[in-house]
Specification:
about 400 residues, 3-stranded antiparallel β-sheet, about 15% strand, alpha/beta, TIM Barrel, globular, 2 domains, about 40% helix
């Protein structure tokens, strides 16, 4: 035994990690159960609290052994409102939620919200995505969505797969390379693009979905915001509606998605593809994205779409600067509070080119790096062009994440 005590910092990402470390040193079962939840600190942000509410939250967290950060002028009521950072373990925050149920100022509702957040970030939560007759186990492993654009003007592969035979061949190659889902798009959403006629989008998409559904029994996603296009694609065999507008441009698409028992991907976008890159700015990037997606989830639920049929996408490249896109990847775990699987689509996008100073055709390594980092931050679906290398990278990243403590 060494005469020198050697401390080190442990990586504790969940109560399960803490329990394993405690069991290694011989802590009793009762001790593990009592202490495992205390090894993980969670920070919850509450926006625009009045001074009385901030005082209550501060006092309650201190009484529970946690803390709360508030604006320095709260004590003198020198501000009308303040954001509050609640600092505590999941156990302490759960106790706070219980205590808030007996408080005034609308705090019982806040307690219910905190309870929901804690449930959403529970690492034991399974993520089964149900899309018509498909059950996609996103909790078991990250899934790859292969991009199939049948457009003449998409930023990356426009014009390559306009012929139906070329499109089918490419789809089957994506599947062979490891794609779990094929996302078919008939209208470009690159920055500056303008809408095409609905008739043209239908002509590009529906026959292709029909043929692909005949050739392959896996889930097909349809990339559209138009209700009629979505309905015709669902009739042809699609199982997922990937709407970059989150049911805002044509709200009827939500009811159609529900009627066909399809899943949906709800994406954040500032503006439209034609205008989205005109000096986008945010006061609170992740907060505004989360707020937008929470409202989109509400619209989906109101239309009858079930909780296990919804995926969220923060919209890399859609109304964001390079700095915004990098920040989304860095803070992706913050979207886990929505309680929905997260999809990310960094493939070949401009922010990679700007970071690495590389043209479109040389962005594979950047795509792999962004995809790997997104997995580590909680992404469950990767929407990409180069399926085989991304699928291999995903398996490797998952092996590292799942390695025993």
């Amino acid at each position: 035994m060494s005469d020198v005590l050697s401390p080190r910092v442990l990586l504790i990402g969940s109560p399960q990690d803490a329990a394993r470390e405690m069991e290694k040193i011989g802590v009793s079962g009762d001790g593990v159960r009592a202490m495992a939840g205390k090894a993980q600190t969670v920070v919850v942000k509450v926006s625009d609290a009045t001074c009385p509410i901030a005082h209550v939250l501060k006092q309650q967290m201190l009484a529970l052994g946690g803390d709360a950060a508030v604006a320095r002028d709260v004590i003198t009521h020198g501000v009308e409102t303040t954001d509050v950072l609640l600092l505590g373990t999941p156990v302490q925050l759960g106790l706070l939620a219980e205590k808030l149920s007996y408080q005034p100022f609308g705090l019982p509702a806040l307690g219910e919200e905190i309870t929901g957040l804690l449930s959403a970030i529970n690492p034991k939560r399974r993520e089964i995505l149900r899309a018509r007759n498909h059950e996609i186990d996103l909790g078991a492993r990250v899934h790859i969505m292969g991009i199939l654009n049948v457009t003449p003007d998409s930023f990356s592969d426009g014009g390559l797969y306009l012929r139906p035979s070329a499109a089918i061949d490419h789809a089957l190659q994506l599947i062979e390379d490891g794609a779990d889902i094929i996302d078919v798009g008939g209208q470009s959403s690159r920055p500056g693009s303008r809408p095409i006629l609905e008739e043209e989008e239908l002509k590009r998409i529906v026959p292709l979905v029909e043929r692909l559904h005949d050739e392959w029994k896996g889930p097909i996603s349809i990339d559209t915001y138009r209700a009629h296009v979505a309905e015709e694609a669902l009739k042809a065999g699609a199982a997922i509606v990937n709407d970059i507008t989150s049911f805002t441009v044509e709200p009827r698409i939500a009811e159609i998605t529900s009627r066909y028992d399809a899943a949906c991907v709800l994406m954040h976008m500032r503006g439209s593809p034609e205008t989205m890159q005109r000096d986008p700015s945010y006061d609170d990037l992740m907060g505004e994205i989360a707020q937008f997606l929470r409202a989109a989830i509400g619209r989906a639920a109101d239309a009858g779409i079930r909780d296990d049929q919804i995926v969220v996408d923060p919209g890399i490249g859609f109304g964001k600067t390079t700095s915004h896109n990098l920040s989304i990847l860095r803070h992706l775990t913050e979207l886990e509070v929505l309680g929905k699987p997260i999809m990310i689509g960094p493939s070949r996008k401009g922010f990679i080119g700007r970071v690495l100073d590389l043209p479109l055709e040389e962005r594979l390594e950047g795509t792999l790096a962004a995809s790997a980092y997104a997995i580590a931050q909680g992404a469950r679906i990767l929407r990409v062009h180069e399926v085989r290398p991304v699928a291999r990278a995903a398996r490797m990243v998952e092996a590292c994440i799942q390695a025993p403590a």
